[in-house]
Structures are given as structure tokens and as C-alpha cells.
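Duplicate of earlier report; TolB-like 6-blade propeller-like input re-posted below.
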Amino acid sequence: MVVLVYGCSDQTNLSSKSSESTDWELVILDSIQVDYLGSVGGGDFRNGKGVFFNFQENKLIEFDSTGKIHYERSYPTDGPGKVLYPTQLRYTDDGRLFAASFVGWLYELNRDLTLKQEITLPFPSQANDGGGFFRSLDFWNDSLISYYPGRDGANPYDPYFIRDHFLLEKIDSKTGGSVPLIKIPSTSRYSSDKFFERPWIQFGISGTRLHLALSNEPMIHVFDLNDGGSYLHTVNFKPSKFLDNGEHQEKYQYISGSRMLDGAIRQLFVTEKGTVVYYEEGIDEEIFVQNELNLPKNFPKYKDFQKQVLKIISPDTILSNEIIVPYRIGRIMNIEGLDKPFYALRDDDFVGEEQEYITFYKLLLVKK
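Output:
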């Protein structure tokens, strides 16, 4: 797919294409520059404003759709007012901002990004990784929904964690009280007693439906939040290429990244009119070994041997075409609706340009 470039004035015509088509393309409408020099380690964008996290400074930066910075806030890592690595960021519809660190701390922030409160659960999270642009924090019906493993001492690195435990917590942000939510359905191979590569868990919510994905299975599992998170159905989004290293002979084997690279869901966006899956295809063993892609110095070469793809699943489970995303487009901040523009980080390393600002592409999904 070729990414088309249109001026902003063309947006109305683009959005008015036939509603019957299942073929889509990705259009770059514009770009904005945020006058900040630093890395982006997680973020969100909703209702005309965005926020991103800079790891080196333990800082959040909030900006608007013109690129203007409204607030910058660095946080102490100990003592009063500490906020530790708030990489997961989610705005609510009414403008509240919640954050989670990659090791489980949960926060609510004021509109000027100062700390409003730390949300403390009765038990600690046992997670030691994750965060960033993974989608594992959301808000529904006055409750936070979070991937927060640790209830009853559950270890998320146990090979049967996904099979044996609830995967999410529904959290009262005022009290820290929580109830467990969502069990993996039998449609997932992780419900069995076999061993597989450890996946990342992501989810999103639209209305009363929660959609959950494990990163190395091409499936979306759908649950009803109005019925305590009961399982409804599973959709296989049928990628034409999504490599997988299969069943392991013993636990704690890590094959992906050492001998080959699994296909992986990188981001998941759930909207009223459809779910968008952003995934990478993976790299087979022969290419991986020949090019020594297990070495950190060669990690940037991954982009030479696999594609990154968007695919849309309609509410009635009709699948779109595969929309190839060029690598100059990096992680997506959020997709609020299939008919709304959204923002994605420009990959300056891939483009080969060093700038003293951060560029976000303004994008739109358009039916052909």
C-alpha cells in the first residue's frame, strides 16, 4: 500500500467514501512539531490534546493539535510527590488523566500534570516490565481497568499464569479497592497445559465491550463488562503472515528474538465502529540467523525483513484488507474513531534526520 498525502482541506471528501467497502488506506494529512528534544516512551491523545513520557527526565509533556506545549512536569522518584516512570497514559472522556508505571504503580494526575493521588491496591503488582505504548490501562464506568498481576501472589512470569489467573483488575480509583476481571477463553492456546513464548497482554474498551489480545496470537477476545466480564466470542484477524515459533518442549524457553522473531501485536485500538490491530509480521529463522539479528547492534535491521501492518475488524467481525504502514510512521498515540484523524510518532531514526523537536504525523484511515 502506498501512503497517500492529502492536504487538510481534502478530509471531508476522504471521509465520505462508500461505507460498503472493506478496503482501506492510510493517509498522511499533515504533521505537527512539538518543541521538545527527547525520547517518547509512551503516550495518549484524546479530545484535541496529547501527552507523552520522557524516560530520561521522568517527565510528562502535554501538547495540543497544533504542537503547542501546555505543560511540562518532571517528577521526583522518592519522597513527597514521587511519581515513578508513568509510561502508560490514558485520558478519560471528561479529560482526567491516569498513569501507570511499567512495574505497576498507578496515579491520577491533575490537569496541570501535578500529582493528584497515588492509587494503592491491597496487594503489590508482580510485573517488572511492560508499559510504553502497550495498551493495558483504560477507564470504564468510573473504574480503572488495568493489567495489574499479583492478586493472591500470582506470578505473571509463571508459564501457566494466563491459564490459571484473572488477567485484569477493575479498580476503584478513590479507594484502591479492586475486583478481578477476565479469564482467558478456551479459544486461546494459553488455556492449555502446553508451553509457549510469553506474550504481552493488551486490551481496549468501547461501550460495554472489552477486547483483549495476546501479542503472539492473531486473535481478539471479546468480553461483556456489563456481565462481570463474561466471555462473548473470539475473532481471528487472519493475517497473511504472522510467524510463530510454536509449542515449546519446556517452560521458560525464549526462542523469539534469539533464533527468529515472532509476529506480534504492537498496539490495539477499540472504537465504536471497529477495532484496529497494529502488528508486525515476524522474521523467519533463516533470515534471522544469516543477518545475526539476535545482536543488539542489528536490531534496527528488523525493519528490513518484516512489515508493520494495520487491520480493521468491524463490529460484525468483517475484516479489512492489510494496510501496510511505512516505517517512517512509528507508534500511534491513540485512535478515537475510524472517521477521526489520529496522531503517530515519526520515526526519526528510520527517516535519518536528527531534529530539535518531535514530529507527529496527523493520519486518517480512508475507505477506498
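The first strand starts at residue 4 and ends at 5.

Merging into the original ticket.
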